Amino acid sequence: MVALIGALLAGCSAPPTEQEQTMTPEESKQALVELMSSTYDLMALSEEGWDPEYPLAADPCTLSNGTNGINYIDVRTWTGDVEATELIDAVRDSWTSEGLSTELDVRRRESGGSDYWLVGRGESVENIRIVIIPGQVTFDGESTCVVGEL
User: Fold this and answer.
1) Distance CA 120, CA 130 (A)
2) pLDDT, greater one: 90 or 54
3) pLDDT given for residue 123 in this prediction
4) Predicted pLDDT at 13
5) N or C, where is the chain less crowded by C-beta within 10 Å?
6) 17-143 is classed in which CATH architecture?
7) Under a CB-based contact definition with an 8 Å cutoff, are residues 75 and 105 in contact?
8) If you average pLDDT over residues 143-148, what whole number do you get?
9) pTM of the model
10) Which residues are CB-contacts of 64 (< 8 A; sequence separation ≥ 6)?
């Protein structure tokens, strides 16, 4: 009897977090769209350098309790040279003011120059990232994983 109860309890999982339960897939998607758009505008990179926009895509994800959920992915790439430090500082300040925590990793190249990786995380998005390497900026984001299906 004890083994049966233990087995039944092991199969139970905690419910998703309040954020995962209360935010709809559309709200999760919209939060990512708004942050990507405001960051895109802030970067003010020339239109000519952007690759055709990838379609915003729904993606399966795993909720905090291990069950399946849904989130959205957005990826953009710009070709050209930028003043990386100025761009990273402006974006980092903006994301911080939006309530995101940020992490910056600067990787020095043996051939000279640096690669910059700025990642933001918060309640509104799972993560948003800018990677600057010589001649290219990659800009992507992932919305909060919420209860829902593809």
Assistant:
1) 9
2) 90
3) 86
4) 53
5) N
6) 2-Layer Sandwich (3.30)
7) no
8) 94
9) 0.82
10) 14, 16, 17, 20
